Amino acid sequence: MTGETAAIRAPLRRRTLLAAAAAASIPVRAHAQGAGAWPNGPIRFVVPFAPGGTTDIMARLVGERLQARLGVPVVVENRAGAGATVGSQMVASAPPDGQTIVMSNIASHAISPSVYRGVRYDPVKDFAHIAMVTVNPSVMVANPKFEAQSLAEYIALAKARPGQVNYATSGAGSSNHMIGVRLGLAAGIELVHVPYRGAGPAMTDVIAGVVGVMFDSLPSASSHIRAGSVKALAVSSEERNPAFPDVPTFREQGVDIVSYSWFGISAPAGTPAAIVERLNAETRASIAEPAVAARLDELGGSPRDWSAAEFTAFVAKEYETWAPVVKASGASAQ
Does the global pTM surpass 0.85? Predict the structure, then answer.
């Protein structure tokens, strides 16, 4: 899997320091080449999921810093639906003037285009992929009163009640949906997927006991884990996450699942190269700021100091990797 790279496994602190050093000189080069009159007004930052999830958290964290660095409002707009394809389609169809961007992610640009029928955009050709923000693992959490309080207990419960044990995610086509599919295949159990329009609404129902278990990206679940409103049962990283050292991995518990989700910034195809370069520079500088790096660390995220070309190549590879996985899983949605 593309998430299982040396870059992901490298020590976070060393990467952050290197990013900070590199970012110090980037804005100067970008400004020197210029981007015309851009930005010439508020920037619309589309989040293709409901508020409260990791995509939303990352967009607001980076959007705040971009607003300060660019000197214009960066307005976050949540447009959820169809596994992040509704908001992404909106951006793909927007004028390529740098005034509309999207928080692209593994769902919108690697998985959902193969899950949802009628998706009208090509995840690579119809976007100018600008910058990666962070890569992070997912986590399996349960309501503290749910009858299964460990991964082993959950699997045993599903075996005892085939087709009756469910799990929630931010939506069909999300990376967390695929983790549920993979868990069912690996453990030989039949699970029921309960898709929501975002991680926030799903987490609300898990905390309320409407659904017992959820697969979520670690950043959006982190505050709820720390507060004790949900219990973390397993994390999808290769090794335990430093921010949550007490949470065992799936592999530790006998299930061979390693998975990472990712979040970046993309714009409509045809966005001028000078604007792409400027946005890339400002994004990289933003995530290298000590306060932002510390927040990403706290959330269990791992920032990436990548060029636009590197991010574009990554997105293309992710789509190629996930398309056959989705086909093999049989997952599909309207």
Answer: no
